[in-house]
Each structure stands twice: as C-alpha cells, then as structure tokens.
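Recap slide: DUF4234 domain-containing protein, sequence and predicted structure.
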Amino acid sequence: MKANLLKSKVNTKTLNFVLLSIVTLGIYNVMWLFKNNSVIEETLEDKIFDYRIIIVLAALIGWSSVFSSEPDLAAFGGLLSILSGIFYIVWAFKAKKSIQKMMLNDHKIDYSMNSFYTFFFNIYYINFCINELEEEVEKSNVLSEKVAA
C-alpha cells in the first residue's frame, strides 16, 4: 500500500518539521525537499521536480540571504526570496496532484486537499497530508465495509 509506504519513508512529524525550519532559518526545508522529493516521486511513480531544480532553489535561498544583507542589493535579495517561495508553491501543487492521483488510482478515494493551505503552507501541508494518508485509507475502508454490510 503506497500510502503506508510513503508515510514510513518520509517519516517526518509536521510539528518537528516546522520547529526544525524555525531553528535552521529555513535551511531544513530545502534539505527535506531534496531528500524527500525523490522518495515521493519513487513511491507515487510520478515526476514532481528534477533534483537540479531543488539545487537551484537552494542556491536562490543562499544568494537571497547574501544579497539581503547588502543595502544596495536588498531589493535583488528580496526578489530571489520571492522566486524561492514560488518554487515551493509550484512543488507543493505538483505534489498535491500526485498524491490525489495515487489515492484515486490505488485506493479509489477522492482525496481532497485544500488549495488555500497548499498555497500558504506548501511543504508543511504536503508533509501533513502524507502523514494523514494512512488514516484516510483506513477511514475509507471502514466506510466501504459499512456500506457493503
């Protein structure tokens, strides 16, 4: 069952993820994405982002930090920060689509994920949903057993 496999491979509690992101000033986000993007793609059998794009994202974040500390280049640093935010949002929506497709194809569950949360909480929300997949499958199985009985 892909839902269980995905949860066990990603294996990150959302609260820990948020706290680590705060403590590392966002660096953990890129590390998590680099590590888990390939795991998610492999498990869901769907391409989300090439690893090179995630390396570009890490570079954008690094350069935005450098440029933001220089008063003359602060605007450029801000632009790079916005670009990195857009990368996260695009990744989150692609991951959302892949998760929903897997749930529909493998478990016959129309798994709805909130687009508002996907936009604003992007990788945190995707991680939260990955952690909830197993429970959604179990809930669906219980409901289908009640309907069959």
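The chain has one domain: 2-148.
The two ends are 24 Å apart (CA to CA).
(End of recap.)
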